[in-house]
Amino acid sequence: MSAYVVVAGDAGITEVINAAVKVGGPVTAIVVGSADLAQQVAAPGVDRVVWLGDPGDKPIEAYAPAVGALVVAAPAPVLSGRKPAERVLLGGAAAALQAPVVSSPMDVRSDNGQTVVEHGVFGGIALRTTAYDGPVAIVLDGGAAVNGGGSAAVEQAAASATTSMTVTSLQPNTATAADLGSASLVVGVGRGLKAQADLPIVEALATAMGAELGCSRPVAEGLEWLPRDRYVGISGQQIAPEVYVMVGISGALQHMGGCRGAQLIVSINTDKDAPVVSQSDYVLTGDLYSLVPAITAALS
Amino acid sequence: MKIVVAYAWAPDPQEASVGADGQVDFSRAKPVVSEYDAVAIEVGRQLATATSSALVGISVGGPATGTPVATKAALSRGLDEVMVASDAALADAGTTRTAQGLAAMVQRLGDVSVVLTGDSSVDSGSRMMPPVLAGLLGWPVLSDVQKVSVTADGVTVERLLREGVQQVSVTGPVVLALASDATQPKAPGMKDVLAAGKKPVTKLEVADLGPAVAEGTVVSTAKLTGPARKGIVINTADPAAAAAELVGALRAAGVIGSTGGQA
Ligand SMILES: Cc1cc2nc3c(=O)[nH]c(=O)nc-3n(C[C@H](O)[C@H](O)[C@H](O)COP(=O)(O)OP(=O)(O)OC[C@H]3O[C@@H](n4cnc5c(N)ncnc54)[C@H](O)[C@@H]3O)c2cc1C
């Protein structure tokens, strides 16, 4: 067995490498990004680093065909994180290999030449174990950044990007990235909040608890009350805090898929039948506008 | 020129029931045009109108995808015509098999400048279909697209990424996955629903989609067993008392410190 790890401009691939090692070595990392990134990727568990180059004024996505060409020359399972460019490079590999795609693995192993993946289905409502005879593309949460320390040397490959795409401008996001994934306390806010002007009510609770502030997807996308790296769910952040306080969040399965690892869930919701209620440790049925300030006061 | 929107006719898994053996039963869940695909259709409508292109919906799925209810629901959102492949053999098709069917449709239609998709489908949600579709077509692909405009030889695209706001110019055909909030789709009106019944529907057979790619073999299914939740209901008649009870319980559990803040 052998496996590929596809790296797209970001060293947050600890979990991808771990899964690739379980699929079976040797593990080849295919890197699009800076020369520094290629060095960082040479971490324990990686046997070979193939660097396709620095994208310059091309989007990383322009390297998808190059990744496809590389893996098809020696087919094997391909793994990547789930950030936008990672998914595109992985898709290029899956297309070239005509390989099936599987997402959100809970466990990966190699068994009698097959790659066996235990994974969630339909947004994580049930589990399935699937065995693949040939190559498979596996997309998962990348995890923490790696930083070299392995034994692989970086080989540069002669690859070229698709010429039809050019980045003409980038207005950098200067906000520091939120780190909800490793937070031990998180307060999340949903559409139960009536106006952006009311956010301080929930922020005060987060401050009093010493918690990170998170939210549901519509609060970040659509309403844009909070940055996009603060929403929890299958498409957003995966959190596993000791306590997750959910304020005015209904508990849609796509949201709950991001917080199953929480030790304790507290829900504050006017609707006693909201889906979140049956998935909470502490249920406070009522108006967040009176309950949240009361909890903040009780903490201080 | 044609602008194509790939859409899924799928039930919301929130309404499915899961048996003790992990088998998922969708029989009581009503399929709809997948939530974010409505965004793609709306953006497609605006682009098609601006460029006098035809707007064609394409969909691959189980038998329900080809029913008049399904095709009318998609058409009423502003598509000019749809091409569907619906068959029991495609009901549980994976991303790559579905993308292969969609690629075959794009090739059959010909003269396609852009394929639009939603951010993710309600049933799988892995956001892998657009990249695989583009790979099969040999086209470039970009996700998280907020804005698209058509240029003389392609499109320019604005994306909202963690790194910032990125503008990309693309020449030639491209697959674009739209951000969930690229536009606010309107609910179809009575006139749209009536007009939808008269629009063309082309049906393809499974054989038209090319030989099926290998899918994995399902070894077993299981119910998801998350941590058991306590389900303790705190009386909220008096908010201050409820707050004190909650804070007391969290302190007793040792998850928050005795003076507030983290333990
Ligand atoms: C493919 C796909 C992927 C998705 N991915 C994600 C994801 O990753 N993360 C995510 O969060 N969502 C995701 N969604 C969206 C998800 O389905 C829900 O629409 C969303 O989570 C709902 O957000 P909400 O709970 O804030 O809003 P709502 O569902 O509108 O819930 C608001 C809640 O607030 C309560 N409320 C109202 N007023 C008050 C008050 N005064 N006090 C207390 N409670 C009050 C209501 O009873 C209600 O339960 C996805 C959807 C799709 C289709």
Which descriptors apply to this entry?
heterodimer; A: 300 residues; alpha/beta; five-stranded parallel beta sheet; 8 helices; 24% helix; elongated; B: 263 residues; Rossmann fold; 2 domains; nine-stranded mixed beta sheet; binds flavin-adenine dinucleotide
Detailed description of the structure:
The complex is a heterodimer of chains A (300) and B (263). Chain A is elongated, with a radius of gyration of 21 Å. Helices cover 24% and strands 28% of the residues of chain A. Chain A has 300 residues and is of the alpha/beta class. Chain A has a seven-stranded parallel sheet, with helices on both faces. Chain A is built from eight helices and 16 strands. The relative contact order of chain A is 0.12. Chain B has two domains: 2-209, HUPs (Rossmann fold), CATH 3.40.50; 227-258. Chain B is built from six helices and 15 strands. Chain B has helices at 37-51, 68-75, 95-109, 129-137, 190-196, 239-252, and strands spanning 2-6, 9-11, 17-18, 24-25, 31-33, 54-61, 81-86, 112-117, 141-151, 154-161, 164-171, 174-178, 201-204, 217-223, 232-234. In chain B, the strands form three sheets. In chain B, strands 11-10-9-12-8-1-6-7-13 form a nine-stranded mixed sheet, sandwiched between helices. In chain B, strands 2-5 form a two-stranded antiparallel sheet. Chains A and B meet through α3, α4, β5, β7 and β8 of A and α3, α4, β9, β10 and β11 of B. β8 (126-132) of chain A pairs antiparallel with β14 (217-223) of chain B. Flavin-adenine dinucleotide sits between chains A (190-192, 216-219, 231-236, 248-250, 252, 254-255, 258, 268-271, 274, 287-289) and B (35-36, 120, 122, 125).
